[in-house]
Amino acid sequence: MKNFKEGIALLKFNLSSIILFEIIHKIISTAILAPLVYAILNFSIDIAGLNYLYSSTMTLYFTKPSTYACLFVILMVLAMFFLINICGIICAMDYSKRGEKTNPLVLLLKGLFNALRVISPRNMGIIFYVLAVLPVTFSVMISGSLFGIRLPEFFRQFIKMNERAVAIALIIYVAICIITVCKIFALNYFTLHHFKFHESVVLSKKVMKHHTLGIFLGVILLNVALVGIMFLLETVFSLAAKGVLSKFISSKALSFGVDIAAEIIFFVIYITFSIISTPLIYSYICACFYRYEEECDHEEVSERREKRQEDIEENKQKRNVARRNSIAYGTMLVFGLLLNGFYIYLSINDKIELDIYYSNRATVTAHRGDSKHAPENTMAAISLAVENQADIVEIDVRQTKDGVLVLMHDESLLRTTGVDKLVGEVDYDFVTSLDPGSDFSEEYAGEKVPTLDEVLEFGKENDVFYNIELKPEDYYQGYEEHIVALIEEYEYQDNCVVASSDQDALRKVKMLNPDIKTICIVHVIYGNFQDMEFVDGYSVRHNFVTKDLVSKIHSFDKEIYVWTVNSETKIKKLLLLDVDSIITDIPYEAKEIIYNANESLFTDWLGRLIEEY
Question: Mind telling me the catalytic residues?
């Protein structure tokens, strides 16, 4: 408790400078880190010989030595930025210990100069040290960020396939973290007395010899308390906001109001705790350091401490504190003006797009027909989709044993017809006996599995635009050729697109008839995949779609379809991103949402602003 109180005193003495330092550091880090990390990832994909990361390329990506080299560079860059932060805070606590005021610019420069010392081969170990103490020095920032992370589906599959290796890696990392925290004073010696990394670790171990458990538990408990309090406050204030809103807002608008209030509250609390948590944790560590260092009689430490004190006294006489602070704050003001000027320049030149209206050009694609109100991939679902004003009807095509093309999403007939057989192992005569409608509803009892021939004939008569999804299997014979032949027979080249996740199938379709538009279905996380010559567009899962992705695809004069989207909020977000088609199970409702989108422009814009920032 005594160490904690002393730490609070150290923090309070230079609190304003420390908070400003934290804010400046985070702004600069965000501005530099994001583009730098993306650039390195792009480079790693390029030198791995890939165009993009996709479920089938992830394993290949991680077999390349260059991948690990680039990931190592990313870790180095991240560690450098974290090291600047920690070194700056340690210097701030040292100023407080001496009873001197400082300013954020001095802390930033001192943090930077100390971090640059890792360039020496004898100090490289400090990089790994910083990565090992991240869980306890940046716990609030990490825990808050984790709640917003959604791992891509194929990345989760990759982890699932390598569960044992991932588990072992995590156990090793946790063990390294514990060992490192038990030598937590190493950074103090490294920063304040300029010892080499190895020397700093040895000195830290010596000072903490009889206090390791107490300091370790103190650091852990402080982290747990900070994270716990942050989420407790967020919950309490969110519930309070809900109670207040319920008295003044109608039940129809209450949900939206509560969501906005909760976002605002969590944002304010998270930012506040992110700024103050690391200085608070290190104020405790530094208080322990100053207290226990005095108990350790080490000749070289004493000599360096005395020399450092002499240098400090000499500098005090030479410097003009008022002038130094004026220069520091003046520099920050100029830096802020430059940032604002740069932002204005980008805005004027359309480098930054501010979406303040909904584009209503996106078409609505009915997923497997109107599959919410009729059995999927049936004539009933297709007819209902047309009736409900869908712009495009998406269908899935498979091939029977005797070569007939039928509409069916799964290769197994079990889910939709109750028959445990594969489409490719039965003849068409058997398929005609199936009833995909009875399990859906008695209203559709007796509904048949249609052929692609029947569907194209219906489409020709009713002016239906189809998204024909190919589902090739290794044992299908002449599958792509048969589909292209039917499209040509009905002269449907201008009224359909052919989609598939199988690139070979799309390549074959394009070779057979270059006039048929092809759509590649991808589970994209990252990379440059937009320039496939045999592809005219991409169909992407909605949670992977970003403004940058849409812009890149459009820059190649290609289209982007997004699947499968059934909520108003997600549909509106995609309208803002200017996607070309929204694939949905609710075509009629989606058309209404798009038509009426701009009526709720202001409240939606406010909600989006809160969510993004």
Answer: 367, 409
